[in-house]
Amino acid sequence: LQDANTLVSKPDDLVMILQHVRKAFPYVERVTSYARSQSIARISDENMARLAEAGLNRIHIGMESAADKVLEFVKKGVDKQTHILAGQKVKRAGIELSEYFMPGLGGKALSRENALETADALNQIDADFIRIRTLAIPEVIELHRDVEAGNFKPLGDKQKAEELLLFLEHLHGISSVVKSDHILNLFQEVEGTFPQDKEQMTAPIRTFIAMEAEEQM
């Protein structure tokens, strides 16, 4: 349903749209929407269940981080508890959930917090998918000006690897599928299902961190 925060629409309107999609395209197996946590948090459980019944069966949420200090710095407009509330609401409705984590978003100052707080939130949500989206800083965004001003110190590749490893090590009690499905990610092979593939996912990161700098390059 478009490439934006479709769930900002009124539930009645979305139900009507979903019913029309199902009628017009009865062979469609999946209807997906992007959504913001704060939009979902405002929707009642009853209306979320109605959306699921009408055919919305996957939602992608750009969590990026669940560390309140990081969220405040990047002006995300949401806090950790709202991320958790929204994720749990989607799961209760029986809708598949993809959550995105962004290694590096806290910079050097908040790297550890970014990993640990996000892992803690995702442990409470148990999303169907956790998708890795490593931070990139193009010149046109405000964060680039923070880098130039010395207010944000980006992580190097080794530090990003260490943050990703810390994040994965602190995921527990979940059955999420981890996907490293983006070209910006250093480790395309960090994919698998919790808990059984945890060692398999962390092994290439450990190998990389143990390498000499020239070998890492």
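the 2nd protein, sequnce then structure:
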Amino acid sequence: MIAEAKTFKEIYDGLDHIPPKTKWIKRIAEVTMRSENAVRMWLNGRQTPEPLVQNIIAKELGVPVEGLFPSKND
């Protein structure tokens, strides 16, 4: 059975507690060459990373890129 795809925010919310979440944000910032603040903006929906960065995130997390950042119209 295939697991249901999760959004970027759902993956973050599934982390256990604050220190792993902080490390996770730092790692995403490192692999995307963006600031930790940018990652937080993606998490709260204020910004969406460009498609190339979305592909980098998907590869890092080992998940399909489709659905990671659903549009507000979805």
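The chain has four helices and no strands. The chain has a mean pLDDT of 90.
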